[in-house]
Amino acid sequence: MASYEPDIIKPEDINPNYHWDRAIPAPGHSAVDFEERVNFSRLHKYRLGRTRQALKESDLGALLCFDNNNIRYISSTSIGEWSRDKIARYCVLAGDGDPHVWDFGSAAAHHRLHSPWLPTGCCHAGMIGLRGTVPPSAGFMESAAKEIKQMLVDAGVADQPIGVDICEPPMMFELQKVGLNVVDGQQIMLNAREIKSMDEIMLLNQAAAMVDGTYHMMFEMMKPGVSEANLVAAANKMLYDLGSDDVEAINAVSGERCMPHPHNFTDRILRPGDQAFFDVIQAYMGYRTCYYRTFNIGKATPPQRDAYVKAREWIDASIAMIKPGVGTDQVAAVWPEAHEFGFTDEMEAFALQFGHGLGVALHERPIISRLVSFDDPMELKEGMVFALETYCPAADGHSAARIEEEVVVTADGCKVITLFPADELPIANPY
Questions:
Q1: Percent of the chain with pLDDT strictly greater than 70
Q2: 40-192 — its CATH code?
């Protein structure tokens, strides 16, 4: 087991290294010897440093994470997206010690060989039940809880609360049985992940660049006879060819399906004059996109054009608000109320006029919405990265426009990193 000698947070470890006077790079996938691209060693230190700082500023003594996004952020380990919903992996950061990772079978041995930033004694094989398929009676959760308790004793923090992000109830019960005070750890991790370093911003920008190209391909492909599913399949292939870790979801919504927004795709075939919108949610090196664009197939009607113009006005109004010190309530105020675009209340319209942080998770801080921001506003800060999205139904009763832009909060404003042209309604393969 690794020692618990204090690991002091160094200023250089949590320095985000911003240089807003230059364009944000999207450097490509290869490592080269003639220019610095993403510095992964620096990225690892920054993320662990941010987590240690957030833990130190809380009243918790340790963090126990089962969320793959948090495990990757703290430990810089990943075993693929297949593990996302298994709740099989876990990570402990106790006091000033090193992060410990319990991973799926041979993955622990792999980390010991290939993840030198983690001390060898911090990589363990572990499994608590695969969401109940191995029942709690097998004792894996009981053993894990006792081992975690001993680690906290060794670190001198067993008498302090331990923050847990997500947890199966039987595991929670076992932690409580060994005398641990289990509290919410999600907020601590969200605090840590809130401000992105330049390395993280470069990865987010590279991820957006991959979607820029994917939209160009889809734009050329959109014509009658092509289905929503055809476009999703082609986009998946291109994104994986470009180096995506995970194409989490692609919404493809067309024609009469546009209103109200269903958030999925089908085998519906595009028809002349359809309005269609898409959202590409994928990750590069763990860093995600959320990036809507709207198109028309061959031609557009005045109501469809009007809807697009209004959606563009709403998103431009919100982008114009983005700078450090502005409250999320101020941004939300420039968007229409739910009833103004056909919904009964803000809960029903949630995520249609919306802002959400992006990073190793699809939804991070800040959340911007008329549903939550007026009662619980948050101040925008330099280094935040988030998506802004709008939705406007058309007067024809079935078409709609959807636009989403990703923005980086700079020292005195913001930079938009989603670059496929969206100032005007794109007409694919016009007649």
A1: 98
A2: 3.40.350.10
